[in-house]
Design a protein that fits this description.
The chain has 10 helices and 10 strands. The protein has 2 domains: about 60 residues, Arc Repressor Mutant, subunit A, CATH 1.10.10; about 150 residues, no CATH class. The relative contact order is 0.10. The longest helix is centred in the last third of the chain and has 14 residues. The model has no long low-confidence stretch (mean pLDDT about 90). The strands form 4 sheets. A 3-stranded antiparallel beta sheet has the order 1-3-2. It has a 3-stranded mixed beta sheet with strand order 4-5-6. A two-stranded antiparallel sheet has the order 7-8. Helix 6 links the parallel strand 5 and strand 6. Helix 5 runs antiparallel to helix 7 and helix 7 crosses helix 10. The protein is elongated.
C-alpha cells in the first residue's frame, strides 16, 4: 500500500468509529475513490453492511451505530422516536431495549437505498407521520465515542405513539398504560406539539387520555383552540362512543 493510501486509511480509521455504518458517499468525501474502497474491502479493512454502505471490518453493527451513521455521517434528518424513544427514556418498562427487534425512526424525506438495505440485528422501521419538524428533539448519549443521537423527547414520542394506536401493534390499552406513567411531562412543549399536530386522531386521543388521568401538567394545557374536527372516529371496534371527543374507546372505560 502506498504511503498516500496508508495515510488515507489512518484518516478513515480516526474519523470512523467502530460499530458505525456509513454510506459510500461519506468515504468518497474523505477522498476515497471507489477503487480504493474496493481495495480496502479486499484487504480486510472495510466490509459491506448493505447496499453501498460500509463499516470497519471488526465492527459489530448496532442500531446505535446505524443511527450515528445516518445522523452524524450522512447528515440525514431522521430521528429515533415513538415507542423506541419512550423506551430509551425509561417509560416502556416492559419493552427491554436489548430485546427490541424494531427501532422506530421518523423523517419527512424518502429513505436512501443504502439505509433500506442495512443488514443489522434490529429492524429499522420508518414513519413520516406525525411530523413536528425539530420540536421536542433531545440528544441521547451512546457508548460510541461518547457521541449523541437525536431522539424524540417523551412529549414528542407520546404524540408519535398515539398515531399508531390500534395499528402497528399498539393497542389502546397499551397506549393508556404508557400514558398513565407520563406524570412529569412539560406542558409548554405539549402545547407546542398540540398546536403543530395535524392528526385529528392524535389530538382526540391526547385530550381524552389527559381528561382520564388528570396528570398535574393537564392544568396547563391550552385546549380552547385545538381543532378536533367534527366527524365520528372509530378507534377500537365494538367500543363505547365518547361524545366529547367523538371517538370509540374500549367498553370497559367508564364514561368521562
Amino acid at each position: 500500500m502506498s504511503l498516500q493510501k496508508y495515510d488515507k486509511l489512518k484518516q478513515i480509521y480516526k474519523l470512523l468509529p467502530e460499530n458505525v455504518v456509513v454510506p459510500s458517499s461519506w468515504l468518497v468525501e474523505q477522498g476515497c475513490s471507489r477503487q480504493l474502497i474496493y481495495k480496502y474491502i479486499k484487504g480486510g479493512i472495510l466490509k459491506r453492511v448493505g447496499f453501498s454502505s460500509y463499516a470497519r471490518v471488526e465492527s459489530s453493527i448496532t442500531w446505535e451505530g446505524a443511527v450515528i451513521g445516518i445522523q452524524h455521517f450522512a447528515k440525514l434528518p431522521f430521528y429515533v422516536g415513538g415507542l423506541t424513544a419512550l423506551n430509551l427514556w425509561g417509560f416502556a418498562h416492559y419493552l427491554p431495549l436489548g430485546n427490541v427487534d424494531e427501532i422506530a425512526l421518523y423523517g419527512e424525506k424518502n429513505l436512501p437505498a443504502w439505509i433500506k438495505n442495512l443488514k443489522i440485528k434490529q429492524h429499522l422501521v420508518f414513519y413520516k407521520k406525525p411530523w413536528f419538524d425539530l420540536i421536542g428533539l433531545k440528544p441521547y448519549p451512546t457508548k460510541i465515542r461518547d457521541m449523541d443521537i437525536l431522539v424524540s423527547s417523551p412529549e414528542r414520542a407520546l404524540f408519535e405513539m398515539l398515531y399508531l394506536v390500534e395499528k402497528e401493534g399498539v393497542t389502546f390499552n397499551y397506549a393508556t398504560e404508557l400514558f398513565e406513567s407520563l406524570t412529569s411531562l412539560r406542558p409548554s412543549l405539549l402545547n407546542e406539539l398540540l398546536k403543530k399536530c395535524e392528526s385529528v386522531k392524535v389530538k382526540r386521543l391526547f385530550l381524552y387520555l389527559s381528561d382520564r388521568y388528570r396528570h398535574p401538567w393537564i392544568n396547563y394545557i391550552d385546549k380552547k383552540d385545538v381543532d378536533i374536527g367534527s366527524g365520528k372516529m372509530q378507534i377500537v371496534k365494538n367500543g363505547r362512543f365518547d361524545k366529547k371527543y367523538l371517538i370509540t374507546v374500549p367498553k370497559e372505560f367508564d364514561a368521562s
